[in-house]
Amino acid sequence: MIDLHTHTTCSDGTDKPFTLVKKALASGVTTLGITDHDSTAGWAEAITAIQPEIALVLGAEISCLTTDGISVHMLGLLFDGENTQMQEMLSDSRDTRVPRMRKMVELLQVDGYEITLEDVYRKVPSGATVGRPHLADALVENKVVASRDEAFNDLLNNESKYYVTHASPTPVDAIKVIRRAGGVAVIAHPFASRRGQIITAATFSDLVEAGMHGIEVYNRDQNVTERQTLLTIAQELNLVVTGSSDYHGTGKLNSLAENTTDKAQWELLESLADVRRVVRK
């Protein structure tokens, strides 16, 4: 089984990289993507956990904003982790997360919600980049909401009055940097309407022109109709089709390998990187 989109404690997951690889192995995953938000910090530890039965696809999920302010996540896979431009883009995105979180907490406080920035940071593992899941966990801890899902549905989705964007590259710029670093670019859950405002089908032509390689079609947050539309777009634009769990560990419903990528599609995607970078033992 091939699962190309997961998160560890190096961003907003709850499993350490070593633990995640072991869990994936126990779940029958044979090819695992490590794609923390705007970070490659988990790569080295994940590599120490690999066994002959599982290969690692190292990458990152890059937080992007379209020119009209719509949040887009771009998976960069198989890029050179030492590429300076790539690391600068990831660092710039991480650096904007602290003021963004402070503002979201302030907006919640104005409306009487019992939450502080200190509450949020108590939920952030050492070395991780702060994100909305940590804010959601703090709201659960303070009994403001009952679960992460409730926090996102009621307070933290992209259309909420408490949502604050942060400085990010455009999807086109992110794709170009990923390609210069030798990697492949796959847009993550582009039609996940339950998360808030989404891009339109017309947007994909610009992304393909920039060099995007694939679309994550099979994702929990996209319904059957949305998946079918994305499949049609992928066929029309000759894009690779992927499926992934978007696993974050405990606190979210997503299970490892609940959606996977077809082997032939994965082999095609891997061949589009400038060199072979899959890590095997």
Describe the structure in your own words:
This protein is α/β, with parallel strands linked by helices. It folds into two domains: 2-95 and 167-271, TIM Barrel, CATH 3.20.20; 97-156, DNA polymerase, domain 1, CATH 1.10.150.650. Helices cover 37% and strands 14% of the residues. The protein has eleven helices and seven strands. The protein has helices at residues 17-26, 43-47, 84-95, 97-110, 117-121, 132-141, 148-156, 171-180, 204-210, 224-237, 263-271, and strands at 2-3, 31-34, 55-65, 71-77, 184-188, 214-218, 240-243. The chain has a seven-stranded mixed beta sheet. Strand 6 (214-218), helix 10 (224-237) and strand 7 form a beta-alpha-beta unit. The protein starts with a strand and ends in a 10-residue tail after the last helix.
Structural class determined from secondary elements? alpha/beta
Which regions have little confidence, pLDDT < 50, spanning 5+ residues? Answer: none
Envelope shape = globular
Strand order of the largest sheet: 1-2-3-4-5-6-7
> Helical stretch count?
11
Number of domains: 2
Query: How much of the sequence is in beta strands?
Result: 5-15%
- The CATH architecture name of the largest domain reads Alpha-Beta Barrel
User: How much helix, percentage-wise, in residues?
Assistant: 25-40%
Element string (H = helix, E = strand): EHEHEEHHHHHHEHEHEH
Q: What is the fold named in CATH at topology level of the largest domain?
A: TIM Barrel
Q: Cα distance, first to last residue? A: 17 Å
- What's the CATH class of the largest domain, please? Alpha Beta
Task: Tell me the CATH superfamily of the largest domain.
Answer: Metal-dependent hydrolases
Oligomer: single chain
Main pleated-sheet profile: 7 strands, mixed
Overall mean confidence score, pLDDT: 94
Nearest-angstrom radius of gyration?
18 Å
